[in-house]
Amino acid sequence: MEEGFVRPLGQRSVEALRTAGLTEQFLDDSTALYCFADSFKKRGSVKAEASLAAVELSGHVTRRGFLLKQGHQRKNWKVRLFVLRSEPSFLHYYDPSKNDILPAGGFSLRGCLVSALQDNGVPAGVKGDVQGNLFKIITKSDTHYYIQAPTHADKMAWIDAIRKEI
């Protein structure tokens, strides 16, 4: 599993992959299903599968919740389920309208910068319908992620949790 040769298929196995570490993903249960990674294909996620290391998903989940993320290409806002993991520190996001086990995207938090954005104006680079409670994450490779939380308290809680992982 750590090397990415085997992937879970069953519902319990998929949920274990999203919420637990590698030690809990192999379930000694007749309902736990697995396949070899090269035969695993699901709804156009082949590209994500090839580039996603199993180690990224092995960390302990420290925070999860729904946030709005601005798209990189179209600059529209979409609801995503964000999962923050530690050891190793990664932030992944999932499309809640799909039942994919692989994230829609994500990145390592090593070398990232996270900051709250002022709610009294739209910063450069942010487009669309902005409701406030914005924060920004800049990755080591200089990719800018603009994220909206539902409340100011949620925004600050996410920023604090991410800073602990950096």
Automatic annotation (TrEMBL):
GO cellular component: plasma membrane
Leader sequence segment: none
A UniProt-annotated Pfam family: PH
GO biological processes: actin cytoskeleton organization
PH domain residues: 60-166
Full protein name: Pleckstrin-2
